[in-house]
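Milestone M4 deliverable, item 7.
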Amino acid sequence: MLSRLTRPQFLAVCGLPVVALLATAVFAPLPFSVARPGLTADVLGSHRGAPVITVKGAPTHATSGQLRMTAIEATGPEADIRLGDVLDNWFDTERAVMPRDAVYPSGDDLKEIEKHNEEQMKESQDSAITAALGYLHLKDSDVDVTLRLKRVGGPSAGLLFSLGIIDKLGPDDLTGGRVIAGTGTITADGEVGAVGGVPLKTQSARRDGATVFLVPKAECSQAQAQLPKGLRLIPVTTLKGAVASLRALESGKGEVPAC
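Output delivered:
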């Protein structure tokens, strides 16, 4: 025989599944990574004891400023991210909660991730060299350029690599003594592509002394959302356009685009 439940008893019984769901949401691992501003490195100088850009077969000239590539740091694919972690970091301007698949598109295996990032970096470096030499009308059969950036992976330093090569081999000083940072992929024909984590990269750039930040034009709004004080954004879509903007900035002549 079934007894009749009072209203409080009924509510208590019905509330049990809700409590269970809430407990699962609070304590279950979630498919997110937490990212923060990472390192920057001057591609015109050295990183971890080795020059980033080495040129053989052509004369280079001294540069007066810096061209700093930027990166983010993120929790690993094995990190146990829970709802509390997401809520704690969601409104922190120095942190970003990102889908794990966006940070680690190659999967969760650490060795596979490292291999994937190394391959992307190598492809980015090859494209950066080709784009820079093409811009300068130099042949890679005559000029040997080597790029080294230890313990950094992915393709987002491509634009800065190309600008660094042009600054060393070209006739002009692109920085004018400024600390210029930026991010963006590069294709062999000089097209600049979007990357992730731009708001965090602008923070690391300003932290390390940059006053100018080159950003893929498609990500202007993201960069503006949390732009650090004292950092000027210059949108870019091509390597040629980026060089033209830096020359205009240095000479004070011509238009410097803005987001």
